[in-house]
Every structure is written in C-alpha cells, then in structure tokens.
Riboflavin biosynthesis protein RibD (Spirosoma oryzae), 328 residues
Amino acid sequence: MVPAEVFMRRALELATLGRGQVSPNPMVGCVIVHDATQRIIGEGWHQRYGEAHAERNAVQAVQPDDLPLLPDSTAYVTLEPCSHYGKQPPCANLLVEIGIGRVVCCNDDPNPLVGGRGFAKLEQAGVRVERGILADEGRLLNARFFTFMEQQRPYIILKWAETSDGYMGAPGGQPVQISGPLSQRLVHRWRGEEDAIMVGTNTARNDNPRLNTRLWPGKHPTRIVIDRHNTLPPYLHLFDGAQQTIVISEAGLSGGLASLVEQKITSVLVEGGAALLTSFLSEGLWDELRVFRSPAMLGDGIKAPAVRGRLVSREMIGADELTIYRPN
C-alpha cells in the first residue's frame, strides 16, 4: 500500500497552483484514489476565487468508467471540506452525494462557518474521516489563511534589500538600487502572490514607486500607504488609478491592520522604508522576513533593520544572497 502521505503531498502540490488567485479563500488540493488499486482516478485544485473548489474539480476529473469506484475510494484533501453555501455549494455535501468511501485531510478549517461541521456532515453520512495527515505542511501552505482567521490580521511579510555593509538607503533618503535584476523580478513575482503591498510615507514621497508587477506576469496587488497626516501629494504613482490604493491614517499599526481585515486582505508584503519595517519588528507584527544582501557597499546612509527570528532558508539570486526568517 502506498502511504497516505504520498497522496497528500500530491494534494498539497496541486494546492500551490492556486497561489495568488484564490484569496481570501485558502489554497486547497484534492486527490481521489481507488483504494484497492492505489490508482489516482481524479485530482483538482481551487483555481480561482469564486470558482469551483478543489473537491468539485477532482470529482469532475473522474472518468465515467471510474465513477462506480468512488464508494471504494479515498479523497485526500488538504483542508476540511466546506459545509456552507458561499460562492460555491458545500463540498462536504458533494462528497456525500458521490458516495465517497473515505476522506483524509491535513487540517480542520479555522473558518467559524466550517469549524468541524464539514467533518461532522461526512461522518453522519457514514463516510470515514481521518484528520491531521501532514498537518504542519498544511498549515504552512495556508499560513495566510490561518493567520487571518485565528489572529484577525493579515499575514505580514517584511522585505528589504541591504548592502554588504548594512545600508538600505542612500544618505538623505535618496533612492538607490541595491538588489540585482533577478532579485527585482523575484520581488515582482512575490507581489502578485500577495493581496497587498505596503510602504510608508517617506518611501512613497522619495521613491514614488508604482508597486505593480510589471516585471512578472501576474495580478497587481492592492497598494497600501501609511500617511498619518495626509501630506502625500496627489501626483504620486500611488494615486494614478492604475490599481487600488488604500491610505491608512490611523495611529498605530494594529488599527491599520484591523481596517485591512474588514476589506478581506489576508496578506501584506511590506517593502519599506526603514521606519515602517522597524515598527512592525518592534511590535512583533510579522510572519516572515525576506532579506536580500547585495555585494555592493554604500559606506553611509540609512541603516537596514536588525535581522531577527529563525533562519529557514538561504540561497543566491544572481549576485544577491536571499535569506528568509520566521519568528522564533
């Protein structure tokens, strides 16, 4: 018999194909396996917000000749099947209707609209349910969704580029390009994977950034700028109408993040500057640090924030070293 983890890893792999397309929903993958032969007879993933969920796509992929096998098959799903009517009908109902024999999941759904009701509906219909297979991997995949639901705030990614001597800006706040072209393209890919991108007042005024994904094919994120005294001029690119821009004027980060929850923004990529990044770090409001270190040197200027947390990866992106950290 093939271990359950093998099929669940395939489901997790499929789920990642929805990255950047399904928010505020979670990424979900589903693999349907005929138990006796250990053959995959259907698979799918949640491809776009508002469209069919992973379970429905997997069922629709089952060939007509294999439909009689469903009562003797297992659906490996990365998250508890939904039990409520939203933009799509409940997936738990669908699995009951097709007569699936068993459902295996990574995680319970933290959404209070589901919260165990999907599993209960399956069990009441006689479907065998197993939970917690690759649970850590499932939570990591949907860290944005779990953070949003459990902590009532967006998932926060702090990103900056620094020189080898520890500076992230030139003297006087003048803009300077630190990271290389490959790193810049990677950042634009990241922008398309998150709901929103945030900068502070000084970065908006000094750099006049567009904060779009022009270097990578993908959706433009919502732009967020902190402007507590409403001093930013209207001619900035942030206000060109090319994509949505939210101006936060509340004092304190917590209040600003609460307003983003109301708008169902589940993740924010914070791109600076130093004062804004330091504020997030000081208040412990962050979930990832992504730091590029360039071989270039400035000798003077704006110091980069002190890196903290637990190192989870290190790699070279062209001439730049990219390190990623998570809280201890």
